[in-house]
Design brief:
- The protein is α/β, with parallel strands linked by helices.
- 37% of the residues lie in helices and 16% in strands.
- The chain has a domain at 7-108 and 230-283.
- The protein has helices spanning 17-27, 65-80, 98-105, 128-131, 143-162, 182-194, 197-200, 212-219, 250-255, 270-283, and strands at 7-13, 32-37, 51-54, 84-89, 92-94, 110-112, 116-117, 172-173, 179-181, 224-226, 231-233, 260-262.
- The strands form four sheets. It has a five-stranded mixed β-sheet with strand order 3-2-1-4-9, with helices on both faces. A three-stranded mixed β-sheet has the order 5-12-11, covered by helices on one side. A two-stranded parallel sheet has the order 6-10.
- The chain starts with 6 loop residues before the first strand and ends with a helix.
Amino acid sequence: MAQKKKIAIMIIVHKNNEQIDRLVKHLSKDFDIYIHIDKRSSLKIRETEGVFVYRKYNVYWGSFNQIIATLFLLKKAFKTGYNRYILISGQDLPIKTNEEIKIFFENNDEEYIHIDKIPRPDGWPDMGRLTRYYFSRLNGRTGWKKLLRKLAEIVSKLIEKIKPRKLDYDFYGGSSWTNYTHNCVKKMFDFLENNPNYINRFKWTHCSDEIFYQTIVNQLDGLKITNDSLRYISWADSGASPKILKEEDYEEIIRSEALFARKFDENTDAKIIEMIYKYLENRR
């Protein structure tokens, strides 16, 4: 009988079939994998032993369904029970071997999560996310979507005047990509069961996945929290999104103490992906 795996990795995906297939094949040698495919995506991922694939929600960027899809995967994994629950995106890659990842979390009861009280001194995330109403499906910048987005902004401002949104928690924010113990996930589900209005508070919140989980964790007692997502991320392009990593970033990536790096895209630079897997193979 195969030994039960101690770590579950949950992946939210929507594109790059070949890149995802290789990621899953690599990680599933040592971890159970729970995958949610955006319902609108044409991705096809085959279920195998220890790989569980779901296609349940339309996961619009910045939408409430980012939270719901993650909760869905967490609940599925929690039913089996693991020592550690790791959330990554389909554009992440491990930069430590599977064995090194297992050793890092062995007898380790800390929660590795990027968490800061908001607003931070640099203004991110801005409090407007929590006071405004956001309609994620209308997040378009061209044509009729741009027009609808403008109309949605007008409607949002009217709703805000009629029913202002309360700042009813000490809100915390950070990266969506987190590393929880079983104890933490249990406490989160207990909190949600005892506070049924909490989820609804985030329904119309822009990029709420960067606030929802951190704010819950801040409500919980008895956790050891390390303010580190264990991800290598470059903001070198100084945009609102992380840089798509390329061959030029290789040396800095492999010098990182992080367990994973993001973002990679096979359509932007497939060579860096090949280099990372070769590095892991040589590191074994």
